[in-house]
Every structure is written in structure tokens, then in C-alpha cells.
Amino acid sequence: MKNLIAKIAAAGLFMLAPVIAQAAEGYSTANVNMRAGPSTRYPAVAVIPAGSPVEIRGCLSDVNWCDVEFYGGRGWVSGQYVQVLYQQRRIYVGPQYYRPLGIPVIRFSVDNYWDRYYRNRDFYRERNRWSRGPDYYYRDRDNRDRARDRDSRDRDWRNRDQDNWDRNRNWRDGDRNRDGDRDGRNRKGDQQGRDDNRREDRSDRDRRPDRGDFVCRPGDSSCDQ
Q1: pTM of the model
Q2: Do residues 105 and 97 lie in contact, with contact meaning Cβ atoms separated by under 8 Å?
Q3: Do 95 and 104 meet the contact criterion of CB atoms below 8 Å apart?
Q4: Phi then psi dihedrals of residue 50, to 5 deg
Q5: How far apart are CA 193 and CA 190, in angstroms?
Q6: pLDDT average, residue stretch 201-220
């Protein structure tokens, strides 16, 4: 009797196994991104077209995200974009259906998951930042962007200060040059004036006869002066 019951139970499990395997097959309900983690903030690794079959490998218990396989690639899709066949009708994947559908409840770790599937991806190089969670990654990235912007603004201010300093120096040099030109012109004008005065003095001396050298002739009217 016990052997008969055991055989019946084994047969029942054998008959249910294909159903469970088939129930883990889902279908995307829209063109949806398959992502590198259970959040829309993780990098997208592929686009699953609407109506495409996916194999559900497991889902998280706390959030409605599932690890799926699509044409040999692996990634995460929200359960609200995946339907499965349950009791002859299609339903969206949700925690209440995990057990009836035979979908295992799993956990997600960036280190293990990315080491297994994303070593050749560009974002893998920042795995250490992503391992703290997407919120931390984006907060850290925002801080880096702000620091980069601040450094850029500081460089701009320094460049503007240098430009202002150069302009002021050029203005000072120009003022000195103009003052030098005026001084040169003034000195040249003074020298020219002195030269003109000397020439006029010489001309006057040349025009005025020296009385010491003047010889008065008898009968000359100028002798009476």
C-alpha cells in the first residue's frame, strides 16, 4: 500500500513538472529594457520587444522585479511588464503567484551577478560604486559632476582674473608709454625752444653792431649819437 501511494505521488510530480516549467515562461507586454539590476536606475543591457518570450529565473520578494533570460542574455525586468500563463489565462507576475508558478525567490548581488554576466560591459568598470546601490551611484556621480563644474568655474574665474590682470598690465604699460611719449615730446619741445632762443640771440647779436668795434668817421651823422 505504501509503495502504491509513493508511485502515485511520484507520477503526480512527474505530470506537474512540465506545467511548472511551462509556467515559468513569460512574455513581455511592451518594448521594455532588460537591466543590469532590479531598478530602472541600473544600466540597460537589452531591449525586449513586446510579445517576446522570456524565461523567468527568479524574482525578488521585496520588490516586483524578476531575473529573466532573453536569447541567452540575462537581466532584470519589472513584473508589471511580464505576463505568464496561469490557469488558462495570462496574468502579470507578482509575489502572490511566485509559489503557484514555481518561480524561486532569489536575492540580487551586484558583485556575483555582474561577475557572471557583465564582465565585458563598460559599466562593469564602476562595479564597486554600483555595488552600493543605484541611489548611491547616482548621488556619487552627481557629487562628482558638481565638483567638476565647480573646478571648471574656478578655472574660468582664474582665467578671467588672469585676463583682467593682463589687460590692466597692458593699460599700465600703455599709460607709461603715453606718458613717456609726452615727456619726450615735452623735452624735445623744450630743447627746440632753447635752440630757437639761442638762434634768435645769435641773430640779434649779428644784427646789432658792437659799439666797441664802431669807427666814427668825421662828418658822419651817426657819430653824434
Answers
A1: 0.55
A2: no
A3: no
A4: -60, 135
A5: 5
A6: 53
